[in-house]
Design brief:
Elements (H helix, E strand, L loop, with lengths): L1 E6 L2 H13 L4 E6 L5 E3 L2 E3 L1 H11 L16 H8 L11 H15 L4 H12 L4 E4 L6 E8 L2 E6 H7 L8 E5 L10 H6 L3 E4 L8 H5 L4 H7 L4 E4 L2 E2 L2 E2 L4 H7 L6 H8 L10 E4 L7 H6 L3 E4 L7 H18 L2
Helix pairs in contact: 1-2, 1-13, 2-5, 4-5
Bound molecules: ligand FO1.
Length: about 325
């Protein structure tokens, strides 16, 4: 079975661990968000790609959900001692090896997708990881504070400000000229099932859907498309999706996110939507917008629970296959 999943960072990576456990023989392709990518001290950092690669490859810091297990931050501290900014970004010593290889390869002219494949040769994540694009598409957050209205990099908003400054909006700088990376459209068109894991619907899944051609591929693929709500009981399971949803005027509910993605019949991307048991009451409202909904436990407390979610998503997809 060929499964294609769009994924952001921590939530997406955690779901993929369960998907692999549920379907060890499936051919899983992950289309990774690169809107979070940033140049830090001259190094190219790809947080969501690395989070998927490290999580599925066994190198992730389980405590943080990002970066490496057993990490140290000596270089970061030395840079801070020089007073060099950004001091707010957690650049790990082990993590730097990945960024050095990526940066040198980019400078040598290799596309990010080829570099990602090479890095995954080492990590063996057990999935094919493809960046959504090899081109620049950088999430900037529009904020307004005492220094006036301006755009800051997503990582600065997310890490330095903990998303505490209300976002007036998001701009994916460069996306209009971006193309899907090689293999992305094919992975969507030839999939048996397409999944939207419980990643941030705005700055992760929403970002991937903005790359010209990707949303269209999802609306036209023969594969059923099923998503899992990242919102349980009116709050994000993890991260700060509510800050992102609010910025777009979207209510922080499983129903509102489903409606935001939209039903494939009406120009949206979803055929099916899993909500947590706590939101079982919202199934009717979601079906009213043309999306088949089902309530199952959606807390990724351990691999077995996450595998059960993946199985529920696959079962729903199979029931929706045309
Ligand atoms: N998240 C933080 O909250 N603080 C950090 O200092 C931080 C550093 C970092 C370094 C490398 C990396 O791959 C991820 C890192 N993250 C950090 C997580 C990252 O900001 C988010 O996970 C994604 O961008 C959102 O999905």
């Amino acid at each position: 079975m060929r499964i294609t999943a769009l994924a952001g960072g921590i939530g997406g990576a955690r779901f993929l661990t369960g998907l692999k456990a549920a379907r060890p023989d499936a051919e899983i392709t992950v289309i990774g968000n690169t809107g979070d990518d940033i140049w830090v001290h001259g190094l190219r950092v790809c947080p969501d790609l690395d989070t998927v690669m490290y999580t599925l490859g066994g190198g992730i810091s389980v405590e943080r959900g990002w970066g490496r297990e057993g990490e140290t931050f000596t270089v970061k501290d030395e840079l801070a001692a020089y007073g060099v900014e950004p001091t707010w970004f957690g650049l790990g010593d082990k993590d730097i090896a990945t960024h050095l290889i990526r940066t040198q390869s980019l400078n040598a002219g290799f596309p990010l997708s080829e570099i990602t494949t090479a890095l995954c040769e080492h990590w063996q994540p057990g999935v094919t990881l493809i960046p959504m694009t090899d081109d620049r598409a950088e999430t900037n957050v529009i904020i307004e504070d005492e220094n006036g209205r301006r755009a800051i990099h997503f990582q600065e908003w997310w890490i330095k400000y903990r998303a505490s400054i209300p976002a007036q909006g998001f701009a994916l700088v460069g996306v209009d000229q971006a193309k899907p990376a090689p293999g992305v459209l094919e992975a969507i068109e030839t999939a048996d099932i397409v999944l939207l894991p419980p990643s941030n619907p705005v700055v992760s899944i929403g970002t991937i859907l903005q790359v010209p051609g990707i949303r269209e591929a999802i609306t036209t693929t023969a594969a059923p498309v099923v998503g899992l709500s990242p919102i349980v009981g009116g709050a994000p399971v993890r991260g700060m999706a509510d800050a992102c949803l609010t910025a777009l005027g979207i209510e922080t509910t499983a129903t509102a996110v489903a409606a935001h993605y939209g039903a494939r019949g009406n120009g949206g991307v979803l055929d099916g939507w899993l909500v947590d048991a706590a939101d079982a009451h919202s199934v009717t409202a979601i079906e009213a917008v043309g999306i088949t909904a089902k309530a199952v436990p959606l807390m990724m407390t351990d691999v077995d629970a996450t595998a059960a979610m993946a199985n529920a998503a696959i079962a729903l997809a199979e029931s929706l296959r045309k």
